[in-house]
Write a structure and sequence with these properties.
It is built from three helices and eight strands. By secondary structure, the protein is α+β, with helices and mostly antiparallel strands. The strands form two sheets. Strands 1-2-8-3-6 form a five-stranded antiparallel sheet, with no helix packed on it. It has a three-stranded antiparallel sheet with strand order 5-4-7, with no helix packed on it.
């Protein structure tokens, strides 16, 4: 282990020990920590208390302007959807879509020239396919392949923290 990594590791141990001491001595801190649902919430709470416990061991820190954790993508305003192109080439593009209680406008259908494959990373959604009158419920890990011109619409997505989708679009052959 490089000296810089050793120093960082020992600092994290010290911060964790101080955090543990606080939680053992203060019942309200213990309750707030127990209410955390995942590692990221623990890190946020610790930071709010002045502790820098950072990310899991071995993960790089992501500073401003650097790479980010896709699952930590913020939610757009209620009823909205935001789209970010993660990477693209001449014939394809990979998008990150964040939805917050979003639904397609009534009686309007999306009709795309490209193939689209979507994967739900967070939250859930319901998509209606027009030609087959099929309703598809999607949860984390579920995916759906839409052929070109497969008319569809989003019936619902989860409210804050929202639904997070990964969408791959590529041209029809």
């Amino acid at each position: 282990m490089a000296e810089q990594d050793l120093i960082r590791f020992l600092s994290k141990i010290s911060q964790l020990q101080s955090l543990a001491d606080r939680v053992q001595q203060d019942p309200s801190s213990r309750e707030r920590l127990a209410a955390c649902a995942d590692h990221n919430q623990v890190v946020q709470l610790a930071q709010a208390w002045g502790f820098d416990i950072g990310r899991r061991w071995g993960e790089r820190d992501h500073g401003p302007g650097g790479e980010a954790n896709l699952l930590a993508t913020p939610c757009p305003p209620p009823g909205a959807e935001s789209t970010q192109v993660l990477v693209s080439a001449e014939t394809w593009r990979l998008l990150l879509i964040a939805s917050n209680g979003y639904r397609s406008p009534r009686d309007e259908w999306m009709d795309q020239f490209d193939h689209e494959w979507v994967l739900v990373l967070r939250g859930s959604a319901c998509v209606t396919l027009q030609n087959s009158d099929r309703i598809v419920d999607l949860s984390p890990g579920d995916h759906l392949l839409l052929s070109p011109h497969q008319r569809h619409r989003v019936e619902r997505t989860d409210p804050d923290p929202g639904t997070l989708w990964l969408a791959l679009h590529w041209g029809a052959a």
